[in-house]
Predict the structure.
Amino acid sequence: MRTLHVAEGSPETAVLVDGASVAAVGPYEELAAAHPDARVRRWPGILTPGLLNVYGPELLEDTYHPDPREAGWLGTEPIGGERARALFRSNPSRVGASARRGVQRLFAHGTVAVAGELRARPVVDTVRRAGLAIGHRPPSLPGPASLSPTPLVLLPPLTQGAPARFAIFDVPTRAELVSQGTDTCVATVLAGRLVYRAR
């Protein structure tokens, strides 16, 4: 079944999804009239092409994302540096599990693509299975690795026939997205699937 995604702050860029691809992009009223049988998902805020996070290796290979069951002794926030390396050395199976949780955190920030050379096989496999696109990394990085990096890098506009990957942020404009950051993400779609939805 086709799904029509529309955000109240950007009804002129509604997206019709058919399977894993974008079937059409345009004003909501036009797409709804042309495809009356499509399921409609309405979102607050603005619909964007989603974000590229250039810190793939730093966030997925050099950072440990604790399991909720470890919160009592490791907390819930990502762990970096020597402490993360020690956790990975003590139990190499943690690499893949941590990467899976890290990918979920990326989804919660509207990330649909990562950049940087990934070397750890469990991380490469996790990124591939998740459906994250691989983008180009700039020669110099603007600052420390972050789930909400500055500046934000939006992917090119959505087009008919392109992969259905995009994100919705609960802000009125792109300027507000830059100001408020990616914690405002309410939904992320990859390959036509809703991979993240804010509760």
About this structure: The chain has seven helices and eleven strands.
